[in-house]
From TrEMBL:
Annotated Pfam families: OEP (PF02321)
Subcellular location: Cell outer membrane
GO CC aspect terms: cell outer membrane
Protein name as catalogued: RND transporter
Keywords from the named record: Cell outer membrane, Lipoprotein, Membrane, Palmitate, Signal, Transmembrane, Transmembrane beta strand
Protein family: Belongs to the outer membrane factor (OMF) (TC 1.B.17) family.
Lipoprotein keyword on record: yes
Signal peptide span: 1-28
Gene Ontology MF, one: efflux transmembrane transporter activity
UniProt key word Transport: no
InterPro entries: MdtP/NodT-like, OMP_efflux
Membrane-related topology note: Lipid-anchor
Length: 476
């Protein structure tokens, strides 16, 4: 290789290593418009911990229900939506690897054979046969190309790809949180429905005993046919409440089976035994409002989206400048296979190529304006996401406190109703009150018992919603 050739190659490599500046603004994480403390809500201090307490990552275990913890673990492992989200995350990582490959030289090995014959009337015949006979061409070599990223276009594209991977990760985190919350909600509703069934069956047993007592009183001439009919109607009315609750229970078991990617009724035997509604009696570690930016996947995704939009501006600006590519070829070419690889069959070519945008009709300027508009939209979207998260947590806190106060009141009401029912049954047996009093008190007890079961479940459900709003329940 001559000195002139070496000098030329050195000059080309120096041009590539001049690398330069990165176009466009650098991304900086936006400041979250969140206060240092939550605004006080009624009775908040009774059931919430100090602001410095972190959210428990495995918050579902705080209900101390092994069945619930088992279902959540299985849902995170087998749920089809989570499996698809994991696949999308791997796709985004593969795309990132594909884009990042542009930062490195591309080398392709080539090899070929052809048999041809040139025209006798042509300008030249490289074989020396003057087009009178066919000849063989054997060749092999290495093609190399590398774009000199002088303006940071490739670097910004990798930055966009990294932000896209982050968005896919947060999408998976958000879906994982949703699956956990949905599993916990369905399980709590199932136990609430089963408790409601137990309440109805208990009241049905009381109503049947009352009907038997009324029939005995009719035989003794103390009661009337009207009272017997009223007692029988009360039994039928309570029995009518069983079927909808049984249907709802079966549907919730199937909903949990679907979350766990199981066939219908797969959990029937496991979940059919009646159990108490999962309850949590400790403090709620709500943490600092500013920590939402690190907990909630939607806020983290919005930040990654803003990052991608910011980096895309640099890509659009780099398109205004020349694009320089260094390419080369090293190889061998011979008419005879035996000569291929000899020093005389060598061939090479290398040098830079440059592409300069001369006239694009406003396309590049429009592309830049488009990316700047997308960055502005992403910034507004980030602020909206943070504010919505703040509202969701505040609403969940209020609902949690209200559901607790309602449950406490209903517990007192049920206790009073139970004592009233015991008293009115004694008075009815003694004949001092009529059957209408019995019906009134029993209906009041049944209504308040059902409301208490529902309220107890609502306390747990609102706590689940609160943890979901806080962004708990996933590994960082």
């Amino acid at each position: 290789m001559s000195l002139k050739t070496i000098t030329y190659a050195t000059a080309c490599l120096s041009l590539v290593t001049l690398g330069g500046c990165v176009m466009g603004p650098d991304f900086t994480a936006p400041k979250t418009p969140l206060p240092n403390h939550w605004a006080p809500t009624p009775s908040q201090s009774e059931h919430s911990a100090t602001a410095e307490s972190p959210v428990d990552v495995r918050w579902w275990d705080s209900f101390a229900d092994p069945q619930l913890s088992t279902l959540v673990r299985e849902a995170q492992t087998h749920n089809f939506d989570l499996q698809m989200a994991a696949s999308r995350l791997e796709q985004s990582r593969a795309m990132r690897r594909q884009i990042a490959a542009a930062t490195l030289p591309a080398a392709d090995g080539t090899a070929g054979y052809s048999r041809s014959r040139n025209s006798q009337r042509g300008l030249m015949d490289a074989s020396g046969n003057e087009g009178k006979q066919a000849f063989n061409i054997w060749k092999g070599g290495l093609d190399i190309s590398w774009e000199a990223d002088l303006w940071g276009r490739v670097k910004r594209s990798v930055e966009v790809a990294d932000a896209s991977v982050q968005m896919a990760q947060e999408d998976r985190h958000a879906l994982q949180l949703l699956v956990i919350v949905q599993t916990a909600q369905d399980y709590i509703q199932l136990r609430s429905t089963q408790q409601g069934l137990a309440v109805v069956e208990q009241n049905l047993h009381i109503a049947q005993r009352t009907l038997e007592l009324t029939q005995l009183q009719l035989n003794e001439g103390v009661a009337t046919d009207l009272q017997v009919s009223e007692a029988a109607a009360q039994v039928a009315e309570i029995e009518a409440r069983l079927a909808p609750l049984q249907q709802h229970s079966a549907q919730l078991i199937n909903a949990l089976s679907l979350l766990l990617a199981r066939e219908p009724r797969a959990l029937q035997q496991q979940l059919s035994p009646v159990a108490a509604v999962p309850a949590y009696t400790g403090d709620v570690p709500i943490g600092l409002p500013s920590e939402l930016a690190q907990r909630r996947p939607d806020i983290r995704r919005a930040q990654a989206q803003l990052h991608a939009a910011t980096a895309a501006i640099g890509m659009a600006k780099a398109d205004f400048y020349p694009r320089i590519t260094l390419s080369g070829n090293l190889g061998f070419q011979a008419l005879q296979l035996s000569d291929l690889g000899s020093w005389g069959s060598r061939s090479f070519a290398f040098g830079p190529g440059m592409s300069v945008p001369v006239f694009e009709g406003g396309r590049l300027k429009g592309a830049l304006q488009l990316q700047e508009g997308r960055q502005q939209e992403a910034g507004i979207g980030y602020q909206k996401t943070v504010l919505r998260a703040w509202h969701e947590v505040d609403d969940a806190l209020v609902a949690y406190q209200a559901s607790q106060r309602r449950r406490d009141s209903l517990q007192q009401a049920v206790a009073h109703n139970q004592r009233a029912l015991d008293s009115v049954h004694q008075q009815y047996a003694q004949g001092t009150v009529d059957f209408l009093n019995v019906l009134t008190v029993q209906n009041a007890l049944l209504a308040n018992q059902a409301a208490l079961v529902d309220s107890t479940a609502q306390v747990s459900l609102t706590l689940v919603n609160l943890y979901g709003a806080l962004g708990g329940g996933w590994q960082g």
